[in-house]
Each structure stands twice: as C-alpha cells, then as structure tokens.
Amino acid sequence: MRQHYDEFRKRGSAIVAIAPDGPRSLARFWEQEGMPFPAVADPEHRIAELLGQEVQLLKLGRMPAVLVVDPDGIVRAAWYGESMRDIPSIEEVLAVLDSLGASV
C-alpha cells in the first residue's frame, strides 16, 4: 500500500493500518520504514475483533484483512484472508473506491 499511497490520496481516501504490535515497537517500525500513512497499535486485538478480523494465536497471529470504511464508519467493502495472498490487489481496492466515489 505504501507504493500506491498517492493513488489513494488522489481519490480523497485515507489508509490506516491496524497492527498487533505494541505502541513503541510499532512507532519504531513505522519510522524505520518511512510509512506515509498512520498506524494504530492493537496488541490486545480489540479493534481487530470489532472489525471481524480473525486472530489465530497458534498459527500466524492476526489474519490479514482489508476494509473500506466510509466517513460515517460504515464498512463498505471487506476482504478477510488466511495469508497475504488472500487479500485483494491494489487495483481491486481502488476500483471499489472509484465505484463509491471515493471520500472513504
């Protein structure tokens, strides 16, 4: 998503990552990687649970998910997977944004 951040911004959209890391390690990683969008630490998986993101503690931890949420907090599209191969391509996500008229 980092490489395509400008494409999201052109559509008036924002990206927010939700990570299972603690705040300090997440901030350190985000700074090291120069990520252009914000991230929220969710080490207790509270946000993940609210969004229906599966957590398998004995396997890989948090399963990947991509959600399109409108300004009112309504999930307009969601993809849940068991590995990173299961999440949609950037083109698919951008197509959904285009169909919604962006501003999400």
TrEMBL record:
<dbReference type="InterPro" id="IPR000866">
    <property type="entry name" value="AhpC/TSA"/>
</dbReference>
<keyword id="KW-0575">Peroxidase</keyword>
<protein>
    <submittedName>
        <fullName>Thioredoxin peroxidase</fullName>
    </submittedName>
</protein>
<feature type="domain" description="Alkyl hydroperoxide reductase subunit C/ Thiol specific antioxidant">
    <location>
        <begin position="1"/>
        <end position="77"/>
    </location>
</feature>
<keyword id="KW-0614">Plasmid</keyword>
<dbReference type="GO" id="GO:0004601">
    <property type="term" value="F:peroxidase activity"/>
</dbReference>
<dbReference type="InterPro" id="IPR036249">
    <property type="entry name" value="Thioredoxin-like_sf"/>
</dbReference>
<keyword id="KW-0560">Oxidoreductase</keyword>
<dbReference type="Pfam" id="PF00578">
    <property type="entry name" value="AhpC-TSA"/>
</dbReference>
